[in-house]
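Protein in question filed below.

…
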Amino acid sequence: MDIVFLVDMTGSMKDEMPGIHSELHEFVNRLLSEHVDFHISIVKYEGSTVENSPAESYTDWAFTMPFRGVMEAEEIHQWLDHVQLSGGEWWDPAASYDQLMLVISEFDFRKDARKVIVIITDSPAKSVYGTFWYAPDCSAATLSAIELFLKDKGVEALYSQPEKLHHLKGYFDANINPKAMVGFETFGTRISWPFRQEDINIKAGQIVDSQYLLCMEKSA
């Protein structure tokens, strides 16, 4: 299982962040206890990503933990303990679609792994259907592009999002731009809010074939 958590870190998420980190700690421990061969990454995002290259977005240790596997569980826990950030109180939604597109295209998912992306946000996804179609920080990714990309790459999407969203003032009017609130439901499966790791079915499978290599070193 290769899984990426996309975590909104705008200011409205500040109170949620400790709980999210606690749940992610528990999720790693559950993967280990059920003997899942996993790669896990955590990406914290905010604002627009249009002006940033993928390299800039995903090599900053303060915002991204690259894929780490079974033998690096301690490093995952350490990252979660030391990186608990939230940004400013932005007036606009975060660029969730951009972040999804970059993760799908830039992350090195293993060919035979079950591929999963989990979005955790209290905001609608910034969209060309909102009030940003004219602005330089408008979302570059469209909803239809995300749907096609996920299907083509064989990636599952889950999303944790409250019923009452932040950042709606001046952004959404059902009579003007109803598609602004389409969000993630056309390509993702809703899980509980606040985020709970037990909602993620890890589908641990049986080992059907094993190979072992025994190495002996002769000392002088």
User: Anything to note?
Assistant: Helices lie at 17-33, 54-58, 73-82, 96-106, 143-153. Strands lie at 2-8, 39-45, 64-69, 115-120, 155-160, 189-191. Residues 17-33 form the longest helix (17 residues). The radius of gyration is 19 Å.
